[in-house]
Amino acid sequence: MKENGKVTIYDISKKLNISAATVSRALNNNPKISIKTRELVFAAAKEMNYKQNRLAQALKSGKSKNVGVIVPYINRNFFSSIIRGIEEELGPHGYHVIICQTHEQMETEIEQINTLLNTQVDGIFMSISKSTNNTEHFKKVLKEGKCLVFFDRKMDVPGVSSVVIDDFKAGYMATSHLISQGCRRIAHFAGDLNLEIYKNRHEGYLSALKEHGFKPNPDYVFRTLSSIESGAAAARKMWELKEKPDGVFSASDYTALGAIQELRKMGVRIPEDFCISGFSNEPFTKYMEMPISSVDQTPLRMGKIAAQVFLEQVDSTEKLTIEKKVVLSPELMVRNSSDRSLLKVAGE
Amino acid sequence: MKENGKVTIYDISKKLNISAATVSRALNNNPKISIKTRELVFAAAKEMNYKQNRLAQALKSGKSKNVGVIVPYINRNFFSSIIRGIEEELGPHGYHVIICQTHEQMETEIEQINTLLNTQVDGIFMSISKSTNNTEHFKKVLKEGKCLVFFDRKMDVPGVSSVVIDDFKAGYMATSHLISQGCRRIAHFAGDLNLEIYKNRHEGYLSALKEHGFKPNPDYVFRTLSSIESGAAAARKMWELKEKPDGVFSASDYTALGAIQELRKMGVRIPEDFCISGFSNEPFTKYMEMPISSVDQTPLRMGKIAAQVFLEQVDSTEKLTIEKKVVLSPELMVRNSSDRSLLKVAGE
DNA sequence: TTGTACGCGTTATCAG
DNA sequence: CTGATAACGCGTACAA
């Protein structure tokens, strides 16, 4: 055994007095090799503690068996769950997952894409940053012949596949649910309406209102950030209205939480006086004493499906650029913050 | 521009009628190259949209500029925060982070290590799985001359650095805090005492009791899992005791949460009748209507420091195998579930 | 200051 | 079935 643990097929070939090419073939189970030689090689390989050098393999084949995943922040539950899905789907196929963060900055997003391409990844998965307003860097990925898959936050780029949830439907579902609970003046905490996902949630909200015969009231739509403070502020503004809402569909769980805290301070009873549904199914929503209804985006499934789309693409017969758009259905988790069905029974 | 975007230093050298070596040197800012040539090369490189192939570089240099991070599950807040810390510290140094999951299985842990070594990573960061009871695979990493750094869950292996928090101190702090709040019969939800971290928390708990003149009561120590159900079960068992505890230091936030829910059902007032502190500072603990006290393990910092340890190691003058043990101090986050200081004031 | 030649570890092609 | 040779893209002694 050599010092630094770097055993190559050459070392094996010398020991066995055969050529390195033969060793390589034996190791790769090439059919045109004698069983005897193969066994000899495997035995020697094991004995010498040989390991394939995937770097050399990659350089030769042009396939690194690495993929990059770019997200705003990896320690957000939603993103880390997606990454988990990708890893679990791709791992068994021999891929490694390289992670990158953008911190919501387009410049770093561009930089991350560049370094990933330098590293010769076989594909890139990503959720675009909030500040991204340009698609040049995405096109570059395609130009290099690499596969690109968007998840959740996407832009329309020809040739790029995407996996998202149906945000329109999610908004529609949540709002309809509130209506079914007896809410009549439903507000909306909208998030950044420049982002496709928030726009779609908003439209789903409007659609549900109209379909049930309610006239949307622009005063009921609040621009919010995804934070507790923003939710509290929105709640206060909401309560200054002449005709106070009796429910809200919030495009963020954090905003929903802030609103709940604020409304409680003001003595509003939930869900009796006011129903609320959040978005993302953040872990905390189900742990509260008053669990918060929320829309689950099934991130694990999202990651797995994104990975499957990638696999189809790379396995497919070469240059045929497929573009696949997968739209997943969200799941509404109804919890106490919007569930009036058990109110009368609860006589504790 | 070539078809597949694969521009090499050869393409540049041809275009400029110089040798590839000169191009390489110019690109690497080798001092012994004329400024004029350098500028010519840079201009051509930019124009031809040249990108360094890090794979080839890595094969040549023996340094891939990739590190692997192995954790049980990446979508646990604690782990994803550590990974974030590692990425943010290492990214600026040109490293990429490859993530792997063990699902708490030693066999997959071994496999992940092997494939990471095959990929020629420059180092491996990891938190060992619960079922790991053997150090052979760790030694193998060292034998290959790669740097290994444990974080949080570690084993003692000569030559391996580690970054952990002081679990003993954490247990001591939390327990002392409960005592300071007037608790006299303090229980402990212990987790898996075979794991070093839980053992240390338990010992910190015992130490605090003794130091304050309390005699530890074995009946007050409960073996628990890190789950809500386990916490509820422990609470019930606890309440069957003749002398009921009046506080608990839980080694897990989930267990603490389960206990709180169960105790409330039984009409126990928190923190008046019973104080509780959890562990990990999971996001949900601070969002509850009754925020839960918890020990913050400062995972972001932990990741950054682990990365720094790695950098010191690889930058150091070669084979000198350094072994660095960093022990971080935990931070106790005191919240309502164990804070009696404001009880009399609260007259709302 | 620049060019030549070689090697990193592997696989594919072409002979034999 | 097996061996020699080239090539993937880059960096670097050595020579000029």
UniProtKB/TrEMBL annotation, chains A, B:
Keyword DNA-binding: yes
Record keyword Iron present: no
Superkingdom in the source lineage: Bacteria
Keywords annotated in UniProt: DNA-binding, Transcription, Transcription regulation
Domain annotation HTH lacI-type: ranges: 7-61
Coiled-coil positions: none
Identification of the protein by name: LacI family transcriptional regulator
